[in-house]
Amino acid sequence: MPADFEKQSYWHERFASETSFEWLASSQSFMSIIEPYLQAICRERPASILQLGSGTSDLQNYFRRKGCLDVTNVDYEPLALERGRQLEKAAFGDVRMKYVVADVTQLDNGLPRDCKFNLVVDKSTVDAVSCAGETALLRMATGVRNHLADGGFWISLSYSSARFALEQLPFDVEVVAKIPTPKLKASDPDVYYSCYLLRPNMN
């Protein structure tokens, strides 16, 4: 049976013992995809970044190494956020980024409505949310749209090649990179994770 990725109880139990884990790809690999877009933002303004479902990833530390301190890490499990603070403090000696308890499918309840971001990222959080069905994923997308600044966009890494094939999605979607999955045998077929760039549509 698949894990109950959409249930908070699953993550509470998991994060009780898990201190660090990277979904689908290392933060370094994901950051290599994000970096050109981040550089484009930073040429015009300091970047305000929202990471959805930060879990026990160290992705936020990569943003800080790039000089980005206006980073808000969101997870609905407080234990995950404590792990994030620990990872930041271990790397830099202090904690300067934000860690906010919020449900990514109800962002308007967890973040002030006027809180806007130039860049929203998630590393397979969309896959966990999708376990609860299309309605939950659309709620997540609507919340992201509401919290994007003008010209802002969302970069999402997913195991699915059709993750955002949804009606009423408030975004135009483009696959900007594919990451090969590990093979058990050389003869295994090529399978890729998809990295999506989502920009608000005009509908």
UniProtKB/TrEMBL annotation:
Name the UniProt record assigns to this protein: S-adenosyl-L-methionine-dependent methyltransferase
Keyword Transferase: yes
Keywords assigned: Methyltransferase, Transferase
Domain of life where this protein originates: Eukaryota
